[in-house]
Design a protein that fits this description.
Elements (H helix, E strand, L loop, with lengths): L5 H26 L10 H12 L3 H8 L10 H20 L6 H11 L5 H7 L1 E17 L2 E10 L5 E8 L14 E8 L8 E6 L15 H14 L6 E12 L5 E4 L5 E3 L6 H7 L4 E8 L2 E9 L3 E4 L1
Antiparallel strand pairs: 1-2, 1-4, 2-3, 4-5, 6-7, 6-9, 7-8, 9-10, 10-11
Helix pairs in contact: 1-2, 1-4, 2-3
Length: 310
Amino acid sequence: MRDLGTGERRGRRVDDGLAELDRWLRDQVAHGLARAERAPYRLWDDAARRLVDAQAGALAGRVRALAGVPREPGWPGRLLAEYALLRLLVRAHRRRNALPAGLHATVRARVGFPVARDAVLSDGERVRDRWWVVGTRDAARDVLTARRVWLRGERTGRPALLLAFTGPRDEPEPAPPAGARFEAELAYYPGALPLRALVAERLAADDAGPGAPPGTGVRAFLDEHAAAVARDPWLDRYPAALAGVRLARDAAGALFAVDGPGDALPLRGPVPWTLLAVAAGERVALAGEWTPRGLRPLTVWHPAEGAVRL
């Protein structure tokens, strides 16, 4: 019998793990979503652990995160949408050899296959620009902390994500300050929607001068985001840089970022008091992470104070 190499053995484990996930997803829909409202956390955790055993770590994280969905308003529709996206990923992985190269790379990344740093630096798409740091966020992920640094190119308008992980005993590197600018060449990871990147060459020192990054109105941002989702259906967060928005509440008290024409984006979670104080009813530049649940503010620009991290 032929001995399997390490990569082939992992591939078979992933295939088996995704086949089991497919059966689990069909069971959840067949049994009805109503039971999810009172289901214990282990319903999703057990499914995620089986994916970890199958070496599909990124997919496991997405399944584990679903445990919190039934605790949110309007959860049935969102849970069903998440199950549908997971099944789409399973089917895309099954047909991976028939996919275009970029989408194939996206599917592998969403499942959990890593891409070597050296391969990104040698083969990744290179983009040179003056990059604005529009926001940073640290988020716990199991025993690791994920640091996301969102960039936007001043000339190209390209978004980019610098992603780093640290363990519980590691000392994280200082995050670049929000509002900083630096000239650099980035190397993008492969994918249908290149977003994550590495700094391949830094060409000039950081500059935290006045002004705000190039931003858009709400409609232009939503058009950009729709085009991004068309390329990567599993995109769960995307950087927004809005220009000339003010804060407003609706009749239920929910807070929105409203642009000049009156288009609005809902703000997600507890809104930092710093944002309310800096905006003070005036129009500001605002950057954050856009998710299906709304915009999480990360940075606001004040004409006098410059960038203020939230």
